[in-house]
Amino acid sequence: MERAIARIDLGAVRSNCVRLKAELGEAELCAVVKADGYGHGADRCASAALDGGAGRLAVATAAEAEQIGRRFQHIPLLTMGALTTDEVDVVLAAGSELAVWREGFRELLAARARAQGRPARVHVKHDSGMGRLGNPDPDRVLELARACDADPHLELAGVWTHFATADEPDADDGFFEQQLDRFERVATAVKAEFPAAMVHAANSAAVFRDRRAHFDMARCGVAVYGLDPFQRDPAEHGLVPALSLRSYVADVKRFPAGASAGYGRKWVAPEETSIGVIPLGYGDGVRRGLSNNAEVLVRGRHHPLVGTVSMDNVTVDLGPESEVEPGEEAVLIGSQGEDAILAEEVAARLNTINYEVTCGISARVPRRPA
Ligand SMILES: *Cc1c(COP(=O)(O)O)cnc(C)c1O
Predict the structure, then answer these.
(1) Which atom of ligand 1 is nearest to the CA of 219?
(2) 140 and 264 share a domain?
(3) Distance 163 CA to ligand 1 centre (A)
(4) Which residue numbers in the chain have pLDDT < 50?
């Protein structure tokens, strides 16, 4: 029995990649392992993703590039985020490819690559509507691609974009298709001049939403971990959740009617019942917004989380007839017996998305293979 642990099913990560590869056909799968693999542990998940058919990896930051680059030296790696000058040096030393969308940054990169004695492989980013990183002008994107190709210290690896609304098929305002059309024109022009450059656009949602978005490669994060990109049941797309968050019942106490659980007495027993105390809380990333607003599996059954989530404890109502004993397992995310609690369900209660739920599990919780 452990106080709190995130069990990671690496077989699920592998099978989710097999599933994505089947969807992608010829297009390559790039597994996104930023933010410690969406809270699942980047190193192990990257290995499992490569086993499942991913041919490339991507991260967001320089520190992530350093970690993943060291561990997977022969796998192409893309660092997707904006970088300071110092970070550029770290990313280049890690052997990672980089994103470029401004001429000034292209020049800086060329100078730093020259100083390190090895050409930098770059992906020119088109902002087709995300309104974040990338160059919104298609002509500038093409000019940047030419400048990268012509520079002896740079190699043009690809041209890419990112969707703002791929995960919202019900919005149906046509914005996803507009972005796709805009990028398709850029991609066609790039391919005509630079047939070897990879063009890529899709995140997990776009892979399932539209084959036209696949291009040469998809950058998939959330689906790799078996989280549903549309905030529904991952099983609908044949995905298997990889993470479960487990703890145990540290104490069981009998509450008379009127007794309260936790700070502020935010829950008062309406009748006599048994309360289980589970020793994890917001210090572990179990958000305080789940106070009186979550369920926990004990003995394969759902029990309401009652009272306030504290830093180190939560309380659950086991019911008046409960025979649960201290030491039994408690599951906050994942399955137990026939029943399961999805990260998507937790996210809905918190008005957020599954990404934030798993990324939010704190460093206090060890990640271990299931
Ligand atoms: C995080 C990220 C992805 C992966 O998105 P998912 O929705 O998790 O598949 C792809 N591209 C970029 C630019 C990203 O930042």
Answers:
(1) 10
(2) no
(3) 9
(4) none
CATH number for the domain harbouring residue 247:
2.40.37.10
Whether residue 293 lies inside any domain: the answer is yes
Of 233, 262, 293, the one marking the end of a domain is 233
The SS3 assignment for 202 reads strand
Taking every pair of Cα atoms in the chain, the longest distance, rounded to a whole number of angstroms, is 78
Ligand 1 centroid–CA 116 distance in Å is 29
Looking from the CA of residue 204, the nearest atom of ligand 1 is 9
Question: Is 80 near ligand 1, meaning CB less than 6 Å away?
Answer: yes
pLDDT value of position 1: 83
Asked if 17 and 53 sit in the same domain, the reply is yes
Residue 179 near ligand 1, beta carbon < 6 Å: no
Residue 92 vs residues 123, 246, 338: alpha-carbon distances, Å: 14, 39, 48
pTM listed for this prediction: 0.97
Q: How far apart are CA 344 and CA 230, in angstroms?
A: 9
Q: What is the extent of the structural domain holding 327?
A: 243-341
Kindly state the DSSP code that residue 86 receives in the 8-state scheme.
Answer: H
- Whether 219 is in the pocket of ligand 1, judged by its Cβ within 6 Å, is yes
In this structure, is residue 127 part of a structural domain?
A: yes
